[in-house]
Design a protein that fits this description.
Helix content: 40-55%
Number of strands: 7
Number of helices: 8
Order of helices and strands: HHHEEEHEEEHEHHH
Strand order of the largest sheet: 4-5-6
Radius of gyration: 31 Å
Distance between the termini: 100 Å
Structural class: alpha+beta
Length: 268
């Protein structure tokens, strides 16, 4: 019989004779093995490491199971939230663009009671940003079950009006940018839809551009060399997301015509 087998046999017999109840914990194993003066130190260390690795693996599996359960609980609760959040009505007038918009208060008024009723909470804060002239904002959507999702994006400082003229102090620009960022991050995270509410009537209104359409339109504006601010001024909208779907094709054609005009002007 080899030495290790002998050690294990001797240790078990001696220990079980002395104690009626034995501990199966790592500490109990160490105590039983350490009590045998015949045990090789290297083998002792190897046995302890194996048991420690087993316990660590069990803790890892348990942690992953808890995290998976929390994710499932988050998704189930979020599904219920989306069932109850309807469109957010625009209640504010933009005198410059002659259009209506939903501010952060409009969003919070609708979504916060629904979120909290289903165990959600939201926190927003600025985080370090390497992009000059921008603020990076972070939105954390946490759930009482323990799971959370984090959303981040960079936003240019809102220091000037749509015409490009500076109209805010640095602290005002920072505050305005953070407010805009909180609104846009929450709208994106919750996949909110916005509609006009004329005279308190929540009847069906024109559907606005989807997120993909907004991105495509923004890419096209850059591609043709136009300026988004001037484009919005001309079309009298506060943002690209406010453009009705039925005018999307018209906007695309206008931008292509703008590009053609620039190309012709460049050849003259």
């Amino acid at each position: 019989m080899n030495q290790l087998a002998t050690v294990e046999r001797d240790t078990q017999v001696a220990h079980y004779q002395d104690n009626e109840v034995q501990s199966d914990s790592l500490l109990g194993v160490i105590e039983r093995l350490a009590s045998n003066d015949k045990l090789d130190a290297d083998k002792f260390a190897a046995i302890v490491k194996v048991r420690a690795d087993e316990r660590a693996e069990l803790r890892r599996i348990e942690r992953e199971d808890r995290e998976d359960a929390a994710r499932r609980e988050w998704l189930a609760a979020f599904s219920e939230v989306q069932k109850k959040i309807g469109p957010i009505f625009r209640t504010n007038d933009n005198e410059h663009t002659k259009s209506r918009y939903a501010d952060l208060a409009d969003i919070e008024r609708v979504v916060t009671p629904i979120l909290t009723a289903h165990g959600f909470s939201t926190t927003s804060c600025p985080v370090p940003c390497d992009l000059p002239g921008h603020i990076r904002m972070r939105l954390t959507l946490g759930h009482s079950g323990g799971h959370e999702k984090v959303y981040e994006d960079d936003f240019p400082l809102d220091a000037a009006g749509s015409g490009g003229k500076v109209n805010k102090t640095p602290i005002q620009a920072k505050g305005s940018t953070q407010t805009y960022a909180r609104r846009y991050l929450k709208a994106s995270a919750l996949d909110l839809a916005f509609m006009d509410d004329k005279d308190g009537n929540s009847g069906k209104q024109d559907e606005t551009l989807s997120e993909d359409q907004v991105m495509d339109l923004r890419d096209l504006i850059t591609e043709v060399g136009a300026e988004e601010g001037k484009f919005l001024d001309l079309w009298k909208f506060e943002s690209l997301a406010d453009i009705p779907v039925k005018r999307y094709g018209e906007a695309v054609q206008w931008l292509k015509g703008f590009q053609l005009h620039r190309q012709r002007s460049a050849r003259v």
